[in-house]
Amino acid sequence: MSRSIKKIFFPKTRLVELAARSGGVTRETALDGANKLLDDARPGADITIENAIRTLEEIVSRAKGGALGEEDMHDVLRHADQIVTLAGTFGYESLDSAVKNLCDVTDGLITAKLYHAAPIAVHIRAMRMFCPGATPIPPEPTYKILSELGKILTHYNFTRQDVPHDDGLTEIAS
After folding, report:
1. Which of 146, 148, 80 is nearest to 110 (CA)?
2. pTM metric for this prediction
3. How far apart are CA 87 and CA 19, in angstroms?
């Protein structure tokens, strides 16, 4: 019995050439590069956070009779969402927790058609204490501040929209 040998032709394509080459980067190199990009972007993010907090302060200053308009409440959520994204990205854990709580309170107030400015103002003051460049707060007082903000949710009988980190003081102190 004779077997015929079949020839298989693989055309030279750019994809074949690239796949045949060794390359890529190690995990450590990729992480170092990502961390460098984050470090380079941090000053711009810090400025954006500061501007968003200042805008929130301006919104609350427009309150009349202790109440904001519905449009102002939605503006609070919009600016708070921007801060949440940046705080989470850049590891500002205490700020992130305070702003998430602000979002939960504001969303609850909108849903309940209550437009109280006071709980929003309290959250903004706490955010100011946790913002980049502020004097660092030790873990114990940080925990106390964040737990007091959580009591605002309880006062209004609102629920938290996300699962909070409850892994001890080191998780919430930044």
Report:
1. 80
2. 0.76
3. 39
